[in-house]
């Protein structure tokens, strides 16, 4: 029960105080569950984020579901999901109730612009951490795959799902070739 309580409060805090979507929330989840609580390893968290990205729906909720299940089974799924969706749900109710006042308020607009800058920095931190892991691996195939994914996204504006599926196919092919080479 104590673990479920900690899981609920951690996800509630993360969801309530992070702006910018799933990638920002996954960064905070990693810091909380991997670095602070040490409930899962860094590699497991990266795997959970990768799986969450390939599933339909919100990355934040998908990560909450997967990490909750990994840490506490079905009860962890329920607790993590509730804690993750509760703050945005309540915030949306407040915004809906006061939309007219929020939409024209210069202070709210300025605050949101400041949050945007902070979110950009947090996403950059996540990209840097993940990119560092690729470079640290020393695997030339991973270097090339990352470079190709960046080119496809930035230069050719290919959508993320297509890039992820291409990377999935390339990863499967790479694993198959490695397995054949070992024989």
Query: Order of helices and strands, N to C?
Result: HHHHHHHH
Largest sheet: none
Range of helix content: over 70%
Mean pLDDT: 88
What is the rounded Rg? 19 Å
What is the overall silhouette? globular
Structural class: mainly alpha
Distance between the termini: 49 Å
How many helical elements? 8
Which regions contain 5 or more consecutive residues with pLDDT less than 50?
A: none
Strand content: under 5%
For this structure, the quaternary state is single chain
DSSP strand count: 0
Instruction: Please tell me the total number of domains.
Output: 2
Write the SSE topology:
Elements: H1 2-16, H2 22-36, H3 42-54, H4 59-97, H5 99-103, H6 106-137, H7 140-154, H8 160-182
What report would you give on this structure?
- With 183 residues, the chain is mainly α.
- It folds into two domains: 2-126, no CATH class; 138-183.
- The protein contains eight helices and no strands.
- The longest helix is centred in the middle third of the chain and has 39 residues, at 59-97.
- It starts with a helix and ends with a helix.
- The relative contact order is 0.10.
Task: Give me some keywords for this one.
globular; 183 residues; 2 domains; mainly alpha; 8 helices; 0% strand
């Amino acid at each position: 029960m104590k673990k479920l309580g900690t899981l609920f409060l951690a996800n509630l805090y993360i969801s309530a105080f992070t702006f910018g979507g799933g990638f920002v929330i996954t960064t905070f989840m990693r810091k909380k569950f991997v670095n602070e609580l040490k409930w899962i390893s860094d590699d497991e968290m990266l795997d959970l984020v990768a799986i969450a990205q390939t599933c339909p729906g919100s990355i934040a909720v998908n990560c909450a579901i997967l990490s909750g299940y990994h840490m506490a089974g079905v009860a962890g799924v329920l607790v993590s999901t509730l804690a993750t969706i509760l703050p945005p749900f309540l915030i949306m109710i407040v915004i809906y109730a006061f939309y007219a006042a929020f939409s024209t308020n210069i202070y709210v607009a300025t605050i949101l612009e400041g949050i945007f800058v902070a979110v950009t920095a947090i996403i950059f931190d996540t990209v840097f951490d993940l990119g560092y892991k690729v470079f640290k691996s020393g695997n030339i195939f991973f270097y090339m795959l990352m470079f190709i994914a960046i080119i496809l996204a930035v230069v050719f504006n290919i959508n993320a799902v297509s890039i992820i599926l291409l990377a999935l196919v390339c990863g499967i092919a790479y694993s198959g070739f490695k397995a054949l080479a070992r024989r």
